[in-house]
Amino acid sequence: MIPRSVLVITALGMLPAGALAEVDFATQIHPIMLARCVSCHAGDKAQGGLALNTRAEILRGGSSGPSVLPGNSKGSRLIRRVRGETLPLMPLGRDAMPAAEIDLLAKWIDEGAKGPGGPAAARWEPPLLPRKPAVPAGAKHPVDAFLKTTGQPVSDALFARRAYLDVWGLLPTPEQLRAFEADKPAGKRARLIDALLANKENYTGHWITFWNDVLRNDDGVVYYGERKSMTPWLKKALAENKPYNRFVSELLNPGKEKDAPEGFILGVTWRGEVPAAERPPLQAAQNSAQAFLGINLKCNSCHDSFISKWKLKDAYGLASFFSPEPLKIVRCDVDTGEVSSPKFLFPELGKVSETALSLQERRAEAARFFTMKENGRLYRTIVNRYWKKLFGRGLVEPVDDMAAEPFHADLLDWLASDFADHGYDLKYLQRLLMTSNAYQLPALNTEVDPKERYTFRGPHKRRLTAEEFVDALASITGEWRMKVPNQPTVKARFVREWELKSTALTRAMGRPQRDQVTTERLTLPTTLQALELVNGATLADWLLEGARRLVENPPAPAQNLFDSGLVRRNAVKVDMPLQGAKKLWFLVENIDSYDPSRVVPMWRDAVLLKNGVETKLQDLLKNVDLERLKLPARFTVELDGSFDRLRGAADVAKVSKESDIGPAIRFFIFDREPDKRRLVRSDPRTPVVRPAGEWTPQSLVTRVYRHALQREPSEAERLVAAEVLGERLTVDGVEDFLWMVLQSPEFQYIW
User: Fold this and answer.
1) CA–CA separation, 449 vs 316, rounded Å?
2) What is the largest CA-CA distance in the chain?
3) pLDDT digits over 484-493, tens only?
4) What gap in Å lies between CA 141 and CA 146, rounded to an integer?
5) Helix-strand-coil percent breakdown of the chain, rounded to 5?
6) What single-letter DSSP state applies at residue 556?
7) Hey, how many other C-beta atoms are within 10 angstroms of the C-beta on 608?
8) At what angle do helices 156-167 and 188-198 cross, to 10 degrees?
C-alpha cells in the first residue's frame, strides 16, 4: 500500500509564504478592531472617548491619553489592556483576545503603526440605477473588449474539462472528449457550450448545488420549525431556465401552490431563547439582502452598523415585509419602544404601497422592489456571483460586499444591463461569459496580493467542489451511491452527490451546513480535509467499491422477494409466494433509529404454507427468537422447495415504540444471497454511463487518465502506475492507483 500519511506530514510541515512580512493595517489590524473593539469604541459615544475604527482614531487615543505609542508596544496602553497588565482586561466582559492577535497588534506597533487612515478614506459608492456603457472597440466579444484580453486560449482538452465542470459539474468521458476533439474547429467551443446548456438534467444537477448553498436548501436533513424543502421548485426553475427576476420574485413572495418555495423566507426556528436579531422576519431580511443584493444586515439587525452605512431601522424596515405583525424595534435585545413599518433599503426606488396590509401583500411589495429593472443592485450582484463562479475571483470582492469597488466597473455595469436586456436569462449570461477569450485563457496558479490593485490576467484555478469530486470518482469507476425511497413500491435510484446527505468527506471538502446563506465555500486545504483524503473511512469505502467494480464487474445483485419499506411503529403484513425456494435470507436493517440498541424487531406470526397447511417459521430455527431480534438481524432458513407461501408481519416490539427510541427499520427477504449494499430494488440507470470492458493494467491506466485528467499518461506516470498495479489487476492495486490519481492537484482543480 502507498504510505498515505506522507501527504499529511508534508502538508503540516509547510510554513505559509510571507510569514515574516510587514503587518498590513487594512487587512490584518483593522479586522481585529472590528471583531474585538468597535462595539464599544466607535462613533460619538465611544467609551472613554477612545474610538478604534480607523488608524487615525487609534493614534489619537482617548480621554486617558494615547492608546498606541508607535515603535513601543510594551509601553502602549492598548497592548497593556488586552494583555491584562493594566486593568480592567479588554475587551471588557468578553473572551480574552487570542495571543496570536495580540502579538500581531504588538508587531504592528513596533513597526511604527504604519498604514492608511483605514476606512476613513473615500469609499466607493456603487450606483443603484442600471447603466450600460458603450463597448470599447477592438475585440469581437464584449468581455474581451472591456478587458483588452490578450493571450492564447487553453487546449481543447483543458477547455472541455473546464466547460463540462462549469455547466454539468461532471468530467467529460473519454468518448465525449474524443468527439469534441474530432469536431471541425470553426465554432466548436461555442457549439459545445450550447450542447451542454441544452441538457436540462445535467445542468440542473450541477447548478442546484450552488443555489442550495445560497438559498439554505438541503434534502435529507431535519428541518426545525416551519422551514421546508424547496427542491421540487428549484429543480423545475433551473430546468425551465426561469428568468431571474421571476426566480427571485417567487422566492420572496411564494404563492399557494403545492411546490411554492416557502422555505427561503420562513427561516430557521431555533430552539430555546434567541436574540431578537435572529427571529424569522429578521432572518428573511438578512438572507434576502445577502443573497440577492450583496448586503450584510447581520450587524445592523442588532444595532447600527459600525462598518457600513446600514442602520438598525434599515434591517427592521426590510424585515417588516416578511412579518405577519408589526415588529418592535429591539437594540441589543433592549426594546426601544418603537415599531417598524415596511421600508425598502433604497427609498429612491419609491414608497411602499399604502394598501399593502396583509402579509401576502407586503411580500409582493418586497418582491416588486427587489426585482424592478431600476434596481441595478440585484442584477450586478448575480452577474458578480456568476463571474466569481466561472473565473475564480469576482468583479467585486468579496462577493457579499457589493458596496466595494469593482476592478472593472464598466464591465460589471454593462454585463448587468445586458443581462436585463436579454430577459434575465441565466443561461444566456453563462454562455456570454464562457464564450469570451478571457474565460478560455490559462488559469493563474498564483494568489492575488490583496495590497495591490487587481488586474485581470486570466481566470484563477478553482478547487473542485465536494460534489464535483465525488461525482468524478463515481463516473470514473461506475460506482454510484443510491437514493433509497421509504416506500417499497418505488425503486431506488443511482444519483449524483447533491441529492444525498453530506458525509464526513464532503463536509471536510467544504459542503456547508445549510442553515445560513452560503455564497462562497471554503476552498483552502485544511488539516481535516487532508486527513479525510488520506485516511478517511468514507473515501476508503468509495475507492474500494469503485475498484471492485472495475476489476470484478460484479453481476446484478439478488432481487428481494419482500421489502417492508420504512417501519416505525405500524406492522407491515407479509403474504408472498415462495416459488419453490430452497433457502431464504431474512434481514432487518437499521435506517435511522434514534437509539438502535433499544430497537427490538420481530417477524410476528410468521408461517410457511404447503397446500394450505401451516408450519411455524420459528419451528425451523435454532438459536433465533423471531420476536426478540437485535439490529442488524440476519439469518437463513433451509427449505425443501415444497412450500408455496409465507405469511406473517414485520413489526417492532411494543417495548421499542417509545418516542425516545424512535425506531426506523426495514425488513427484507431474499431467495439468493443478498448484496448488503444493494438490498432495495433499483433502477439500473446511472447519471453517467458506466465504463465497460475487460481491463488490462495498461488499458485501465489510459482510460482513467483520459477520464480524470483529459490526457494520456506520461511515460513516467505509466511506470509508477505499473508498479502500483502489477501485472494483473487486483482490487487493492486498483484502489491505490485511483487514490494516487485523485490526490493530484491536476485532478482536484479546474485549470
Assistant:
1) 38
2) 102
3) 999 999 999 9
4) 9
5) 40, 10, 50
6) P
7) 22
8) 20
Q: Would you state the cell numbers that stand for residue 194, as one nine-digit string?
A: 450550447
Gyration radius of the chain's alpha carbons: 31
3-class DSSP state of 591: coil
Residue with the three cell numbers 411503529: 569
318 Rama sector, left if φ>0, alpha if ψ -120 to 50, beta otherwise: alpha
Pairing of strands 334-339, 665-670: unpaired
Whole-model pTM: value is 0.83
Q: Both 243 and 392 in a single domain?
A: no
Sequence-distant (6+) residues with CB within 8 A of 625 are 618
The answer to whether the beta carbons of residues 33 and 40 sit under 8 Å apart is no
Mean pLDDT of 287-304: 94
Cell output for 262: 416557502
Given a cut of 80, whether residue 573 has pLDDT beyond it is: yes
C-beta separation of 290 from 517 below 8 A: yes
490 and 502 belong to one structural domain: yes
Is the same domain home to 544 and 691?
A: yes
| 678 occurs within a structural domain | no
The C-alpha cell at 630 is: 437485535
* Beta-carbon contacts of residue 301 (< 8 Å; ≥ 6 apart): 277, 282, 285, 286, 312, 315, 316, 319
Contact predicate 556/674, CB 8 Å: no
For the sheet containing 645-652, what is the strand order?
A: 572-577, 645-652, 601-610, 613-616
Q: Using H for helix, E for strand and C for coil, what is the string for 204-235?
A: HHHHHHHHHHHHCCCCCCCCCCCCCCCHHHHH
Where do we find the cell 399557494? Answer: 256
Q: Which of 539, 469, 522, 475 is nearest to 498 (CA)?
A: 469
- Domain of 604? 562-670
Helices (H) and strands (E) in the chain, counts: 27, 14
- Mean pLDDT calculated for residue range 193-213: 98
Give the three cell numbers for residue 122.
473615500
Q: Which amino acid is at 567?
A: V
Cα separation, 648 vs 736, in Å, equals 47
Torsion region of 2: left, alpha or beta (phi above 0 gives left; psi -120 to 50 gives alpha)? beta
* CATH number of the domain residue 641 falls in: 2.60.120
Note whether 506 and 522 are within 8 A (CB): no
- Helix 426-434 / helix 156-167 crossing angle, nearest 10 deg: 160
Tens of pLDDT, residues 708-740: 999 999 999 999 999 999 999 999 999 999 999
Sequence-distant (6+) residues with CB within 8 A of 593 are: 599, 631, 661, 662, 663, 664, 665
Q: Cα separation of 65 and 607, whole Å?
A: 91
Task: For residues 421 and 514, state if they share a domain.
Answer: no
The CA–CA distances, whole Å, from 485 to 489, 515, 666, 682 equal 9, 24, 11, 10
The grid cell for 608 is 410457511
Q: Looking at the domain assignment, is residue 156 inside a domain?
A: yes
pLDDT of residue 44: 59
What was the pLDDT predicted at 223? 57
8 Å CB contact between 130 and 420: yes
- Give the pLDDT of residue 580: 86
Number of domains in the chain: 7
Residue 704: HSE in the Cβ half-sphere, 13 Å Cα cutoff: 29
Give the three cell numbers for residue 169: 459539474
Contact 189, 440 (CB under 8 A): yes
